[in-house]
Recover the amino acids of this structure.
């Protein structure tokens, strides 16, 4: 049984690097992480973050360097480490692409074939490829809220249908695709007009299990609510051949809520599995998008300890 425990908030120090609006994060080993932002900056950011070995809280969190990557798209949302290759995959929400970049030179060295259902013309209101993760030999990606062909976006009455895409094999070819229902918005607010509830990232565990990170902006006094779910894919239908999800006729992914918390100014959009801690548990790190500081949003890290992860065979 997976059990995450929140350990606390920590302000991310960007120094004079210019790193902003960080939306995706991936652990590269030890205290090294990489992040991307959705502000259009052509850079992959290196983070140095130390977790307390016995407890999992953040001791230090700084943006230590920037890697110039001119071929990055205009809206980088997700990042996943390519094992033993010195590269990372980055998903772009506007161009609906997943590209591979060298973490040494910043050059684009490859691209993953994304199914046509995610094409930019089918993406509604900047709700495209937001989530990206790699684990147990599989790359996973998902859009944030419903594609135009899949129905309405989230409301207070219901959530939104999104598609989780699996890529497998040496060439990471598109494989199965699953339908996932996001949570509805808790309440609309008279103070804002941008309420939303969507899937902002995925986390593939080394034992093959998959977690989702949902983010809601809603409530009468608006707040950010972060939720982590464990996904059950065993009975879910492959919807890759369906041109629309709005008519139903499939079995969606099962969801089991593991953790949730409310934040006033921390918009957590990225999640990654950190190092294994001294007691055999794992650190988990969330990163927030500061949105250029609008409405007081901050660039923060949040650490959790995850129990129940089995090491890969």
């Amino acid at each position: 049984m997976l059990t995450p425990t929140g350990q606390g908030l920590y302000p991310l120090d960007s120094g004079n690097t210019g790193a902003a609006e960080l939306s995706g994060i991936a652990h590269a080993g030890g205290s090294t992480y990489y992040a991307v932002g959705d502000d259009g900056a052509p850079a992959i950011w290196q983070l140095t973050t130390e977790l307390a070995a016995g407890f999992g809280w953040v001791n230090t969190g700084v943006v230590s360097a920037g890697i110039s990557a001119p071929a990055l798209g205009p809206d980088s949302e997700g990042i996943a480490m390519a094992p033993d290759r010195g590269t990372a995959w980055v998903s772009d929400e506007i161009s609906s692409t997943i590209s591979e970049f060298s973490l040494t030179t910043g050059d684009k060295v490859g691209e993953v074939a994304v199914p046509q259902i995610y094409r930019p013309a089918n993406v509604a209101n900047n709700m495209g490829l937001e989530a990206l993760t790699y684990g147990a030999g599989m790359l996973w990606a998902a859009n944030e809220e419903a594609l135009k062909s899949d129905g309405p976006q989230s409301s207070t009455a219901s959530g939104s249908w999104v598609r989780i895409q699996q890529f497998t094999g040496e060439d990471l070819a598109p494989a199965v695709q699953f339908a996932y229902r996001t949570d509805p918005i808790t309440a609309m607010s008279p103070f804002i007009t941008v309420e939303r509830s969507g899937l902002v990232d995925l986390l593939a565990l080394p034992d093959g299990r998959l977690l989702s990170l949902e983010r809601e902006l809603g409530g009468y006094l608006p707040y950010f609510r972060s939720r982590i779910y464990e996904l059950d894919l065993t009975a879910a239908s492959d919807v890759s051949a369906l041109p629309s999800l709005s008519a139903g006729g499939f079995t969606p992914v099962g969801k089991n809520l593991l953790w949730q918390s409310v934040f006033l100014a921390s918009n957590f959009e990225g999640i990654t599995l950190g190092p294994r801690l001294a007691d055999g548990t794992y650190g988990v790190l969330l990163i927030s998008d500061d949105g250029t500081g609008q409405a007081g949003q901050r660039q923060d890290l949040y650490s959790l300890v995850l129990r129940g992860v089995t090491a890969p065979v």
Observations:
- The two ends are 18 Å apart (CA to CA).
